[in-house]
Amino acid sequence: MEISDVDDWFKVNETEITSIVELFKSDKCLRRVELGSMKYISQNCENSSPQETKIKEIQSKLTSLGVVLAVAHTFDDGNFVASILINRRGIAVSGGGLEISYWEKFPVYLNDELECGAIEALYKEKWYAEILSSEDPCL
Question: Fewer CB within 10 Å, N or C, the chain?
Fold first, then answer.
């Protein structure tokens, strides 16, 4: 999928996508959910039964969307971001890909990427698509 296709994909899958974000927002202990073994993924808190249930629910939604990873982070200033990796090329460290992100407040430090097209605002407020690259996408 290319960045230009994300809006249409988002519209078709909006309910599933936004429900993943709501699950992360409702449980600050969750920080990363992926398909496959979660054995080596540490969350922000000790594992609990309710947390395991939410992880399984998010994994089910990821499967439904045909993607493999969702992450969330709350910054020290309270800003919250949740991202879903749509596709990945190469290895995680040196590869690239495409993700969508929900930002409570879009950070000023990403304005350059927004202006050069490496990040695109989606039709729904607070949602963005981003090209992931190990190199500066704006050069």
Answer: C
Half-sphere exposure of 8 (CA within 13 A, CB side): 5
Concatenated DSSP letters for the chain? --GGGHHHHHHHHHHHHHHHHHHHHH-TT--EEESS--TT---SS---HHHHHHHHHHHHHHHHHT--EEEEEE-TTS-EEEEEEEEEES-TTT-EEEEEEEESS--GGGHHHHHHTSEEE-SSTTEEEEEE-SS-TT-
pLDDT confidence tier of residue 90, bands split at 50, 70 and 90: low
- The answer to whether residue 137 sits within a structural domain is no
Residue ranges making up the domain that contains 120: 3-132
List, for residues 25-66, the tens digit of each pLDDT value. Answer: 998 888 888 887 665 566 777 777 888 899 899 999 999 998
- The number of domains in the chain is 1
CA distance linking residue 67 with residue 15, whole number of Å: 15
Is residue 125 assigned to a domain? Answer: yes
